[in-house]
């Protein structure tokens, strides 16, 4: 793949912040993890052979009738309640007409002016400051199929000769969550957007309605942004950036667009209302579809589906069954674990760390140790492999086992790192690795004592200092003993022996 | 006349139906008659009657989240004008960014 470059002029971010106010808007699609599709019993499972998860309903063949998946409606209501939304006592589905081959019916069943949930509020914290993200609506709709473009450069639509459509994803239930304009984020707009996405991800996972994996398209973000010169009140022209597939790129894409729009406006230009595509490899956005002309979808009430009228009892029952929300859970765990704000910030800032530490603690590990292993050794390993923490081939219980071995004095911290590496390399359980690799620290006092004697003999000047009361010099001797023992010694015990022998 | 040939031309474009100027001129008054007939409902149904979208007063027709067998891909592809690699083959998609 050739990396592309961008010729966009960019204004320095700090300068944009001095001259403009940022207004954000986020449209997020959540792919629900139901077993069957939104209107038919076809499987939603990923990775089937092309068009093997299709039927007359999801292909929109004449004479077929859609019937709503109750679990999807329930999931949409639970998402709405978790966003602090009102739930509509009565609402309808609507047809959104457009022609694009990924939509076999030539329309998408969505909701128009009667969303199932509306008027919510999400409260977030970024670097210790609180921000509010007002929610306009959450509505139900269906996913589209996948296209394979043939004949041009590999997989690209430009220059392709024809396209091949696989409708396995067509009709998979989606919930679209739309914010109202988000103002007052100061210089933190991109970070607030990222925190909002992280919040939604944690929320849908806690609800169990979706795994919320952005890289797999289970959570998709269209990020709108516009700039207003400071002191003015009229909204600027916005752009919508698509193809933003990770938390990091939500922040980066918005930052890029803010700097690009700043340069356009400062140069006396006009921001074009358009859809832009985020180029992950290059770190820039490119112009896509122009949106200057309002699209005409000719929405009308879906005649094939009757209205949804969730009863008060049903809604209240769903409300009562809501799980602890992420922010509440974080606050509770921080207090249970006695982590400082700074320590907690690192945990919150690392995707998946909170749940992994929680599971590790549940497996018997001390919170501080669980935090240490996941945020240092394992975070580094995940970084090197370019995967998320939760995708590392190590279970929280194994991390807890490593810590148990450390606390039992079987291994020290340094050996623990070797053991963790070996677990990641697939060598088995920590206990087995310690045994098979002979990693346990030497607890044979005779061998230890002999190594200490040898180190003292080899470093008479250091030994003399310690005899003279300079116990802080013992570090050099501990290092020498460790070297002799191949790292397999308990540093604390070695220190005790050295002091005892030299006093 | 409420519906102009320009309106019909726009609708035809949105519905991807190709119409000649002669066809437009012929269809516009016909559609207008239909619209007028529908509009006459307004004389009976006053402001206090909400517009209805469904003929039957039913709500909450839902199914449990259970899988049913899909159809064989060959059966689903049988009606397609063209296919390839077990997929529906469609003509080149003109992306707006092609035009710049
Ligand atoms: Zn189906």
Question: What this model shows, in words?
Answer:
The complex is a heterodimer of chains A (503) and B (100). With 503 residues, chain A is of the alpha+beta class. Chain A has 3 domains: 13-316, no CATH class; 324-437, no CATH class; 445-502, Arc Repressor Mutant, subunit A (Orthogonal Bundle). Chain A contains 17 helices and 15 strands. Chain A has helices at 13-19, 70-82, 189-207, 247-266, 312-320, 326-337, 341-348, 353-362, 367-375, 377-385, 396-407, 413-424, 430-437, 445-458, 460-467, 474-484, 491-501; strands spanning 20-31, 68-69, 86-87, 94-97, 107-110, 117-126, 129-142, 146-150, 162-166, 173-179, 219-229, 239-244, 274-279, 284-290, 300-301. In chain A, a hairpin with a 2-residue loop joins strand 6 and strand 7 (129-142). Chain A is elongated, with a radius of gyration of 29 Å. With 100 residues, chain B is mainly alpha-helical. Chain B has a domain at 5-44: Histone, subunit A. In chain B, helix 1 packs across helix 2 (21-39). The longest helix of chain B is centred in the first third of the chain and has 19 residues, at 21-39. The chains are: A alpha+beta (503), B mainly alpha (100). The interface between A and B is large, with 62 and 39 residues. Strand 9 (162-166) of chain A pairs antiparallel with strand 3 (87-91) of chain B. Zinc ion binds next to loops of chain A.
Give the key terms.
heterodimer; A: about 500 residues; alpha+beta; Arc Repressor Mutant, subunit A; 3 domains; nine-stranded mixed beta sheet; three-stranded antiparallel beta sheet; 17 helices; 15 strands; B: about 100 residues; mainly alpha; Histone, subunit A; two-stranded antiparallel ribbon; about 40% helix; flat; disordered C terminus
**Within the largest sheet of chain B, what's the order of strands?**
2-3
Low-confidence parts of chain B lasting 5 or more residues at pLDDT below 50? 96-100
Domain unit count of chain A:
3
Bound molecules: zinc ion
CATH topology of the domain at 5-44 in chain B: Histone, subunit A
Q: β content of chain A, as a range?
A: 15-25%
User: How would you characterize the largest beta sheet of chain A?
Assistant: 9 strands, mixed
Rg result of chain A? 29 Å
Shape of chain A: elongated
What is the overall silhouette of chain B?
Answer: flat
Q: Oligomeric state of the chains?
A: heterodimer
In the sheet with the most strands of chain A, the strands line up as 3-6-7-10-1-11-12-13-14
Q: Could you estimate the helical fraction of the residues of chain A in percent?
A: 25-40%
Counted by DSSP, the helix tally of chain B is 4
Residue share in helix of chain B: 25-40%
